[in-house]
Specification:
Oligomer: single chain
Number of helices: 14
Radius of gyration: 24 Å
Largest sheet: 9 strands, mixed
Order of helices and strands: HHHEHHEEHHHHEHHEEEHEHEH
Distance between the termini: 18 Å
Helix content: 40-55%
Number of strands: 9
Length: 415
């Protein structure tokens, strides 16, 4: 039996009416406020709009500011492409220099884009971004806490995904990365083979010439990589991630409508800012509140993009596959979904991350929850991610599973 239904009269939970609310709220934000670049006034306006609703269901609603260097996350692209092209040219005469340039090109790509480090952030202009925090307190002493997170910003448009789709986009991105790796390896081998000896045989010279010609072919995807995304135009973000925001807000809404407060479990919702700029809002919150979040048992569930039900999953690994989320929290969300009739798998984010990673990095038990085609679909980070792309049934399921997670955690805790 569902934990929710064991504590509540089922008639008090109107998921269909709540789904209508979610669709209408997302549509309103997209139409009246529009795209919400990280650290923009539109991001803040959307949070304020959602905050008005959260105040109806929460005991405390507040904003916290932080500084985001929003262009830094993808700002490595021109630099890395320049290093790759110059390294390819210098491969023919200066292989050691070529090798060093490829290493330079890799450093910001790996640290910023794959590992979400704030490596080159100081080189870019800072903007004020916000986290919105809403809390529903228990009736008694707070002994444990569950936090639901959804990010309120939207990404700058991925031009290649819009023009070519996920598969077509990969035909540029994968060769670009492969080419950089190949140039790095070939330059080092050429230097060790020829550079140290000062001469080469005719066969070696021919071989390295052919390799160089092949490396030149990769200049095409390098140049294509320059057009990976827009640096001025952000997208509507109806699914990514207003769908996640409204799903986590629904936990407080449905609890309030059913007049439910847990006895000793605090329920908190965070609408983070600047997730698309490298989890900056979640990182700022986890850093500022680390002591508080560790004083009592606290778990975090980050919800991102509730649309593609066939791909609904609990995230096992995150941060480009380098980070493993807490097994107890993963099991909790998986069981909650099963209670709702959905036997969902564990999945991993092998390229990118969700807000849960920021908390796991700080030693706070967390996991991610989403329903998104990992191809990725053509609407992902493009102008197509508008309200007409919403899937109401997915929104309904997302809210139901998250609500069940809250009740299950209150009733049984972590196993």
């Amino acid at each position: 039996m569902k934990t929710v239904l064991s504590k509540l009269d089922a008639t008090k939970i109107n998921l269909d009416a709540n789904t209508d609310y979610m669709v209408n709220k997302i549509t309103e934000i997209c139409e009246k406020i529009g795209p919400r670049a990280p650290g923009s006034k539109e991001e803040y306006a959307a949070q304020q709009s959602m905050g008005v609703d959260l105040k109806k269901w929460s005991d405390d609603v507040s904003f916290e500011e932080f500084i985001v260097h929003r262009q830094a996350f993808m700002g490595f692209i021109p630099f890395t492409v320049a290093m790759a092209i110059i390294a390819t040219i210098l491969y023919f005469s200066y292989p050691l220099v070529s090798f060093l340039l490829t290493i330079l090109g890799f450093i910001p790509l790996v640290l910023e884009f794959l590992m979400y480090k704030q490596f080159i952030d100081p080189l870019f202009k800072g903007h004020t971004s916000h986290n919105l925090i809403a809390t529903r307190k228990p009736t008694g002493e707070t002994k444990k806490r569950i936090i639901f997170v959804g990010h309120s910003d939207s990404q700058y448009e991925w031009i290649l995904n819009y023009k070519l789709g996920g598969t077509g986009m990969k035909l540029f991105l994968i060769p670009a990365v492969v080419g950089l790796i190949a140039c790095c390896a070939a330059s080092l081998i050429k230097h060790l083979t020829i550079g140290l000896h000062g001469s080469s045989s005719e066969a070696q010279s021919t071989f390295f010439l052919v390799v160089g010609i092949v490396l030149c072919i990769f200049i095409v995807p390098y140049v294509g990589f320059l057009f990976f995304q827009s640096y001025t135009k952000s997208v509507p973000g109806a699914n990514d991630n207003l769908s996640g925001c409204l799903s986590v807000m629904s936990v407080l809404k449905l609890m309030d409508e059913a007049d439910v407060r847990f006895e000793n479990t605090e329920v908190r919702v965070i609408l983070s800012g600047s997730e698309e700029a490298g989890l900056r809002g979640a990182k700022a919150y986890a850093k500022a509140h680390e002591k508080e979040l560790k004083e009592i048992e606290t778990i975090v569930v980050a919800c991102d993009t509730m649309r593609d039900l066939k791909d609904m999953a609990v995230y096992d690994r995150d941060l480009s596959g380098t980070l493993k989320h807490d097994k107890q929290v993963k099991a909790l969300v998986k069981q909650a979904a099963l209670n709702c009739g959905y036997d969902i798998p564990y999945a991993s984010i092998y390229l990118g991350a969700c807000d849960a990673a920021a908390f796991t990095q700080k030693g706070i038990k967390a996991t991610g929850f989403a329903a998104m085609d990992p191809t990725p679909p053509r609407y992902y980070h493009t102008r197509l991610d508008a309200p007409d792309m919403l899937v109401p049934e997915a929104l309904k399921v997302g809210a139901e599973v998250l609500l069940e997670t809250a009740f299950l955690y209150d009733a049984e805790g972590l196993k």
